[in-house]
Every structure is written in C-alpha cells, then in structure tokens.
Amino acid sequence: MLHGFMPTILNGMVITLAVAMASLCIALAFGLAGASAKLSKSRGLQRLAATYTTLIRGVPDLVLMLLIFYGGQTMINQVAPKLGYDQLIDINPFLAGVLTIGFIFGAYLTETFRGAMMAIPTGQREAGIAYGMSKPQVFLRITLPQMVRFALPGFQNNWLVLVKSTALVSVIGLDDMMFRAGLAAGASREPFVFYTVAAILYLAITTVSIILLRGLETRFSIGVKMAKL
Q1: With pLDDT > 70 as the criterion, what percentage of the chain qualifies?
Q2: DSSP run (H or E) holding 207
Q3: Number of Cβ atoms within 10 Å of the Cβ of 222
Q4: Are 107 and 52 in contact (CB under 8 A)?
Q5: Can you tell me the distance from the alpha carbon of 13 to that of 80, in angstroms, rounded to the nearest whole number?
Q6: C-alpha closest to that of 166 among 131, 206, 219, 224
Q7: How far apart are CA 10 and CA 220, in angstroms?
Q8: Does residue 226 lie in a domain region?
Q9: In this predicted model, what pLDDT tens digit does every residue of 25-54 receive, in sequence order?
Q10: What element of type H or E holds 185?
Q11: Roughly how many angstroms between the first and final C-alpha of the chain, as a whole number?
C-alpha cells in the first residue's frame, strides 16, 4: 500500500524531530532573554522586547521562513564580495529552518515566561538578595523552579504548535518528513495516502509530547498540592 516509502518517511521524521528540538533550544534562549528584558527597569530593553514580540507575532511564519532563507541568502551574497569573498554562499536549509522557527517561537515564549515570572511574589526574590545571594543564584534557586510550574501550560501549547510548524521547512528544500511524504505522493500518485501518514506521525509526536508534559506538570505541582492539603 505504501510502495516501500514508509522507511524513508520515518527517516524524515527523525529530521523533523531534530529541527523541533534544536528550534526549541533557540526559542528557550530568546524567550528567557525577552521575558527578562520586558521585566527589566531599562526602557530601552523593554521597547526592544516589545518590538520583537509584536513584529514576530504579526508576520506569518511562512513569510519569515522565506524571508530569512531567500532574502538572507541574497543579502549575504551581496555583502560577501565586498569583504573579499567571491564564492557563492548557500544557506543550509536545516540551519535556516531552525533559526527561523526558534526566533519565531522565542517571541511566544517571551510572553509565557514573563507571565510565569510575574506570578512569583517579588518578596521571594528580595529575600534571596537579602540573604546574600547573587542575581543568578536567585534566578536558579528561587525563580526558575517556581517559574517552570507556572510556564508549563503555555509552554505545552507553544511546543505543540512548534512541532507542527516544522512542516514549513519542506518549502525551503529540507529533506524532512513532509518533504519525503510529498515525494512519495508524487511518485505513487496517491497524495491522500502519504499526507495522511504524515498527519498520523505528527499526531503521534504531539500525543507523546502531551503525555510527557502532563507528567512533568504533575511532578512540579506535587509540593503545591501538599501545601494546600
């Protein structure tokens, strides 16, 4: 029924997962930096973070993907000769996809992390400083453990959307699951079958993610439930 294409689609799923995980790491970094900037006392950092989140959330993901991949490649090849480099530079589709998706979802995680940080009483951080902790120690020992619990619901939603957004990398030529499903659909002339297979595999990834993240949410809520009892 699948004409022997299933192994190659599964190999494409590995690439899809690699894109998702690498993008998540970048998104986490941008999200934490953006949330810290929004909550900082510097108006410059606040405005920069606000511009970042407003711009990214207002432009379609596909437009940003094409803009960074094709527009970025054109700009680099225009600047390179001026710096003495005459060879054509090709942007790696994996790198372009990961950077774009990570940059996009960093904006969404900025708001998730900002809300989580604001849910923690300011007095706890002030108490940490009073006890002689440095700001990094306060963040790691007081803010971060509690922030995770508040951020997990929003983080889960963002992760699920991020996984689905990895399908966009197929339009810039990355040999991911959607790209391979498209090749199989074209070769077999059975697009419904192979795109259904891709949909089922995406559903499997998101279902496993939901189960794992709910378990993590339960784990971080144990102390809170015991305190309420």
Answers
A1: 96
A2: helix 191-228
A3: 10
A4: yes
A5: 35
A6: 206
A7: 33
A8: no
A9: 999 999 999 999 998 889 999 999 999 999
A10: helix 177-188
A11: 56
The H or E element spanning position 87 is none
Does a structural domain hold residue 110? yes
d(CA 196, CA 61): 23
Residue 37's CATH number = 1.10.3720.10
DSSP 139: I
Specify if 33 maps to a domain. yes
Residue 47 lies in a domain: yes
**Residue type at position 28:** L
Range of the domain at 36: 14-172
CB 181 within 8 A of CB 117: no
Give the count of domains, the chain: 1
State how far the Cα of 59 lies from the Cα of 103, in Å rounded to an integer: 12
pLDDT band at 1 (very low <50, low <70, confident <90, very high): low
Six-digit token string for 39:
């909550």
- What's the predicted TM-score (pTM) here? 0.87
Contact between 34 and 49 (Cβ < 8 Å): yes
**Structure tokens given for 156:** 């889960």
User: If we measure between CA atoms, which residue out of 189, 119, 177 comes closest to residue 148?
Assistant: 119
* Residue recorded with tokens 């790691």: 140
